[in-house]
Design a protein that fits this description.
The complex is a heterotrimer of chains A (281), B (265) and C (380). Chain A is mainly alpha-helical and 281 residues long. Chain A contains twelve helices and no strands. In chain A, helix 7 (152-177) crosses helix 9 (192-221). Chain B is mainly α. In chain B, 78% of the residues lie in helices and 0% in strands. Chain B is built from eleven helices and no strands. Chain B is globular and about 75 Å long. Chain B starts with 6 loop residues before the first helix and ends in a 6-residue tail after the last helix. In chain C, the strands form four sheets. Chain C has a six-stranded mixed beta sheet with strand order 6-7-8-3-9-10, sandwiched between helices. Chain C has a five-stranded antiparallel beta sheet with strand order 13-12-11-14-20, with no helix packed on it. In chain C, strands 15-19-16-17-18 form a five-stranded antiparallel beta sheet, with no helix packed on it. In chain C, helix 3 (124-134) packs across helix 4 and helix 4 (139-152) packs across helix 5 (168-181). Chain C is elongated, with a radius of gyration of 25 Å. The chains are: A mainly alpha (281), B mainly alpha (265), C alpha+beta (380). Chains in contact: A-B, A-C, B-C. At the A-B interface, helix 1, helix 4, helix 5, helix 6 and helix 9 of A face helix 1, helix 3, helix 4, helix 5 and helix 6 of B.
Chain lengths: 281, 265, 380
Amino acid sequence: MNVSSRYSRAVIVPLLLAGVLLGVPIAVGIAYLVAGAAGWVGSTVPGVAGRVLTDAAVWRSVMLSMWIATAGTAIALIGALAVALLFGGDRRLDRLAQRVTALPLPVPTVATAVAVLLLLSQSGWLSRVAAQMHLITTPAQFPALVYDPWAIGVIVAVVWKEMPFLALVALSLQSLRGTALIDAARTLGATRWQATRAITLPLLLRGMAPSIVAVFVFVLGSLELPLVLAPSSPLALPMLIQERRQALGADSHAEAYAIALIATVLAVLAALLHEKLRSDA
Amino acid sequence: MTFVRTPITRSLLLLALATFALAPLLMLIATSLARGWFYPVVVPSGIDGSAWQELFTDTAHRSALLNSLILGVATALTATACALPLGRAAAGSTRVVRRAVALLAFTAVALPPVVLGVGLQLTVLTLGLGGTLFGVFLSHLVPALGYLTLVFLGVFTRWDPRLEEAAATLGATGRMRWRMVVLPLLRRPIAEALALGFLVSWAQVALTLLVGGGAVQTLPLDVLAMLQSGQDQRAAAGALALTIPALIVLSASRIVARNTSAVVA
Amino acid sequence: MSTALDVRNLCVLFGGAGRTEVAGQSVSRYTFEDPTIADMLRRLPGYHVGLVDISFTVNRGDCLAVLGVSGSGKSSLLRTLAGLQPTIRGTVLVNGADVSSQPPERRGVVYLHQEPVLFPHLSVLENVAFPMTVRGVNKQTAMHRGVEWLQRLQVGGVMGFFPESLSGGQRHRVALARALCADPAVLLLDEPLASLDPAVRRDVREALQEARAASGAAMVLVTHDLDDALAVATHITSVERFGRLSAPALAAEILEQPPSLETARVLGVYAEFDGEVCASPSGNLFRWIGGSVSAPLVAVGGAVACVRSHEVQLHRGNQLDVPALTVTSLRDGARDAVLTVRHSLGEEATLRVGSGTSVGVGEVVQVTLRHARIFPSPLS
């Protein structure tokens, strides 16, 4: 019956393709992590998983990465919403603003890191301006914005890099929806701000939810920014993994795999959340 | 709140936005061309193009640049060629399959490259590809495929099946439909996918580091090395050299988009 | 051979894998006793049976209109005929050849979607020449024929434009021209006039009439609007209960004598009232509260009369030899007036008369019927 075979072909082919192209590399990668952590590959170091979960340094890294991702995503989101609300129209000023906002999009993360370092480090440009204005006399007097425990430099770089993406999502959601709902609210007596707060913002946030999750998880797993801008203690999670992996000794390697598995679990949870939000939208 | 929307306030905000967006880029340009720019000088005293020159004359830099280009182009072409049929097949399938593929693709993208790199490191070593350009290329394919699958999944979910239906009843066979209806309408998404695939590989750091094991040098790794050894001017030039092709590739795909009169995706 | 399209015992499915929607919840109420169909469906998840045992023929140059409400499976019927949906049972013959297992491109059947689907990346002329291009016809000849058809359908002026800049009526005409350029044996039109505003509707109706005159194709047109069907079609059929199709009737005659009560209901232009057919020395009579009408062809038993508004005559007072009825309600509309009349014994009937009637509520009237279509009562 050529119809039922056509139907099952429609289901099997994509699953097969996806399995081979995507599933296999991911599965293999994770399998090696598991094997490495359990000690089946490389030298055996039993009890590594337990050690990693109780290691304070690991948790400090997790906290730092979480902080960077949360703060960075939140500020980028606020900026993106502001751009969408203030410059969401069709006039020349709006279009100029949209184009300016989109500038950072293609810039590779490494380049962003370098630029932010040059701007915000204690011998960076802002520090020099402060010196010229006689606010400080030595570089050390400039507040530590990079390599600092609050990872301000990293967060600034995250905001610079991710706000354009979120702004673009917000702008396209807005242009799709149009002004019908706002107009309706305003004819019912709401002020522009009330209509924005009660209608536009919630709808925007709901539509942006998958993108927000995506940005959060990208920042969480990014190596380039902490590598250049973040402190060496505590290390951001990706850096911790890399450090333990490069270190000598089977212990560290196994720990690296175990920590990487924690990050994997976080990533998979984020992926599930993203997919759920995407299909709800 | 009405004061926020006045033209003056909006212009000022636009200025602030522009400053914020341009500052890092201007900083890179300035640093890459500045001669002997030391603390606490705010404006550099002279222009010195030596860093740029070195970027293209130094053999090590040149080979890193070449590696990045090769990896970028190879990743773009391969990932696009694989993701297109996958996206189409998944979009035409049941809802469960669509979601499963989307989930898988997003996982490939959401997994920190460090994690993926650590995992693939051993695989690549086992296959004897450790420290080779090909091994790095294979690792770059994973996130690239993830991104591009999501792109094509979106394209084909929004696809109008009636176009091919109409073509079929008008007498066009499968191959003809593909050549005369589907492909022309895919010109724009393919251009965007190639650009995105290129960028994913071009800007990649973690995977190259871990799978290449230091033996494969690419432009972003070069920039990091220069930064870590305190060569700010060269690092800035390298960062710009990293950025400019990205800008070109994206505008090129946008030009293709504008010239394609068909807007399906 | 004048029979262009011959459909035999076709079974039409709804639904399928992917993003096709299942049309019409009424499908679940259909039952079918045939175990082989049930068995086949089990191997096709997501499909439901819509129409069963569909058989009809359409000759060259004729146009069959299929009437029915939305969701009744009319679109699925066309799509099955076109080959866009699978055929699990039945045969479709085009010009005598069995195309039931052929893909759409080899059937000689062109399907026109409800919204005209033009290729956005091709100009109007390239669109129209498309069927010739895919057949390998030399480009110049293809363009030439394309121009001919565009001019014949009065849209020669837009040949250089792209679909996005065309108006609604123009898009319909271009799509028609393109279909006719394929020289099809059968042309299937899926609700071509639905959701069009009156001016465009008239325009496209004319285009369809021109198309029918210009080509020798057999047309099957699906619509829920009787006026559209009457304007374009030569024969009319309708989708009835349990997924059947009524026997096609000539469009010119269908209003006079619809083939069944269900079809009459689908046509929607009659007022119905109940009565009974009794035997009498002069033949069977249909008795209702307002009198009786001869019904020679209808069996004795419960029956329903279908009457159009201009066939009802109201007479004031009580002079005729028929029962007197009291008007209990009256609603005057733009096209006709609906009134309820009551017999002295309490039974009521609803009538439709021409609008602007001078009869008022409470008045006593008598009714004569110039013409009535009598059908046996449906077994509900």
